Amino acid sequence: MSEASGSKPRPAKRAKDGKKKALNGAKQRRLTEKQQIEALERQAMAFEAPSDLSQFTNLPISEPTKRGLKKASFVKMTDIQAKSIPVSLKGKDVLGAARTGSGKTLAFLIPVLEMLYRKKWGPMDGLGALIVSPTRELAVQIFDVLRSIGPFHSFSAGLVIGGKNLKDESERLARMNILVATPGRLLQHMDQTVGFDAANLQILVLDEADRILDMGFQKTLAALLAHLPKSRQTLLFSATQTKSVTDLARLSLKDPVPVGVKDENASNSYIPDNLEQHYIVTDLDKKLDVLWSFIKTHLQAKIIVFMSSCKQVRFVFETFCKMHPGVPLIHLHGKLKQQARLEMYTKFTAHSHAVLFATDIAARGLDFPGVDWVVQIDAPEDAETYIHRVGRTARYESHGKGLLFLLPSEEDGMTAALKKKGLEVNKIKIRQSKTQAIENQLQKLCFEDPEIKYLAQRAFVSYTRSIYLHKDKSIFKLAELPVDRFAESLGLPGTPKIKFFGREVAKQKKNASREVQAVQAKSDESESEAASEDEGPSDSEAESDDGSASDGDEGAQPAKDSKGDAVRTKYDRMFQRKNQNILSDHYSKLIDRDSFGNEDDPDEEDFITLKRADHELPDSIPQIDEHADLSKRKLKLSRAKRAIAKNGVNSKLIFDDEGKPHQLYELEDGAEWLEDKGGLEGVKQEGQRFAAEERGKMQITDVLDKAQARERKQEKKRKRKEREKMATSGTQGPMLGPASDDDDGYMSPEFDLPSESEDDEPAGPPPKRSWAREEPPSKKRKTVDHGLEGDEELALSLLRRR
């Protein structure tokens, strides 16, 4: 007992000592972590980046970040990363600009992780970092990179983009420490989601800020900045620096440090060194021929083809898929649903040889590995868009080529705009011997498939509309487009109607006529001045230029300009319309006709002439009084009754079984029959007797129906008991499943189950009724003769029992 009692406290003591050691170890780790964070912060503040900084391990960053970078195979830094990360780690605002494919994503993701790590950010602290991206695809790419380098951190990260369920995002939003979002969806959550609070935000990142502003998010971005605290760090990155980006930096950044911003006029300041740039000049109706020939000669390459509108992308994708070029074809544009867009993005990333038809939605920030060619068959709206498009190839240290299609009317203006940005694009020529015409194939597709024809029409209108809406008219000249030939090249039998094209041509003609009038007016003024010096004032000086009297006349008033300050009411606009007498001649012809449609001038012929023939009418035509009283109208409505009173009842004949005719309503020997029945009293008795017989028949029918229903119910009960008995005994009844794989598990409604014998029915469930509706037995019997036959004795016995 003593030994046992003495050994009891030993395990408890060991557990107590182990718990104490664990607490001391946790405390020591917390102290060590705190000391490490303080040491990291001191190193970051005192860090001066050397000129040969190239490794991530040389940066003053935490161990979890280094392990994440090593796991994701990020070892060597790029120029923008080596310059911006040390500045960002010090907590300063950064205005970064670097050429496409230079690694700007890591340049702001590493400071985001380090900032939250040093502040010991936890789940209860809420939103600490916000990253705003212009497109959904770029936001998904940023989120994937964040997940790849941050698995050893304990932060929660979320992705908020359009096209997904708002309610599902709202439920998780309050628990996120890092949020990657698009501007529109983020503002929607800020306005609608309960519990979403950005008051503790520590760092804000704006990626591709110029594109955010170009896409019409100026007001959205201003509203977002109003929701965010001012005491935050802001990182703004873009491949190109525009005036709008500078204005945004002035509003949202405090003493920003410009990183990687070069002179805009410097040669190739935004283009990778490994990129070869070319352009060709081709007619509008030959673009698709050249594109098809280019794809057929580069089947082992990875190509991105940029177009100006979603409808063009869809038309070219659908038609080229039907023509089978021999390489996988993929399309990506803003009209696709979010899931489809992600699938197309992933599919093109995984392929080694493919062609992607895309709009400018794929021109910003997306990192497609191994792209060999970037083909722009539609000219970009400006030089910045050109830079971002060709930036999808020659990324980091890889090589790539760019090809730009220009129309003859676009060559001078586009090359001048590119030279202004310091871009030298080499002109090359097309080999006509290797160019394959596909106009006939497109015409065949449009003829066979109405949907392809509809897509061609929409592609035609969308392209011409994009040219019409572009601001730089020195490049995009709508009036010089060969629209008829362009419609034929798409396979259309005719040119679709374009309203804005007519307005543009009319506007140019109007401007040209105004210039001619101005030149003539100047010449007239010079001649009148010369004449006035010799002869004195002429009569023309008594009136002003618009035809009104001059101020010297007392009774005349000068006419006001239509664009003056005078307020014009709707009545003024109505009576001052032009071409008000455009139908006056036609109206005068109408009123000059006589009562029979003949004009005064017999020699003039119309397209359609109506001739009326004279009909002989009786001398006395009854006139209808339009103001007749209500009683006359009632008499008019009872015309059928008056006809019966005048002509008697209908004399329609019917035929009996022997073929003898009878009137529809007749009573043979009515008086004789009445005398036989004993007069009126006899008729009443006959009616009572007939009613009693009918009641008896109905009672018998009712008894038979109830007996039959009772028998049916008993039979149903008996079959149910037999099924239960078979189920308990393990005997398998008739199979209700499908006889074959084509039946889908349902019984055919037209057939009953096969019986086990001739006299007895199977013990399974009753067969399903046919889909045709059956009448109840009672209603069926009412249609047959109810003579007391067959069941007369049964029915009478049942009535006696009652």
In CATH terms, what is the fold-level topology of the domain at 275-489?
Answer: Rossmann fold
Shape: extended
Distance between the termini: 96 Å
Per CATH, which architecture of the domain at 275-489?
3-Layer(aba) Sandwich
Structural class: alpha/beta
Approximately how much helix is present in the residues? 40-55%
Which strand order do you get reading across the main beta sheet? 3-4-2-5-6-1-7
Query: What's the CATH class label of the domain at 275-489?
Result: Alpha Beta
Largest sheet report: 7 strands, parallel
* Number of DSSP-assigned strands: 16
- Beta-strand level of the residues, as a percent range? 5-15%
CATH superfamily annotation of the domain at 275-489: P-loop containing nucleotide triphosphate hydrolases
Mean pLDDT: 76
Q: Which regions contain 5 or more consecutive residues with pLDDT less than 50?
A: 1-8, 263-267, 529-565, 593-610, 731-790
What does the radius of gyration come to?
Answer: 47 Å
Helix tally equals: 28
Explained architecture:
- The longest helix has 51 residues, at 679-729.
- Mean pLDDT is 76; it is low at 1-8, 263-267, 529-565, 593-610 and 731-790.
- The strands form 3 sheets. A 7-stranded parallel sheet has the order 3-4-2-5-6-1-7, sandwiched between helices. Strands 10-11-9-12-13-8-14 form a 7-stranded parallel sheet, with helices on both faces.
- It has 28 helices and 16 strands.
- Among the domains are: 16-46; 48-259, P-loop containing nucleotide triphosphate hydrolases (Rossmann fold, 3-Layer(aba) Sandwich), CATH 3.40.50.300; 275-489, P-loop containing nucleotide triphosphate hydrolases (Rossmann fold, 3-Layer(aba) Sandwich).
- It starts with a helix and ends with a helix.
- Helix 4 (79-89) packs parallel to helix 5 and helix 26 (679-729) packs across helix 28.
- The chain has 802 residues and is of the alpha/beta class.
- It is 46% helix and 9% strand.
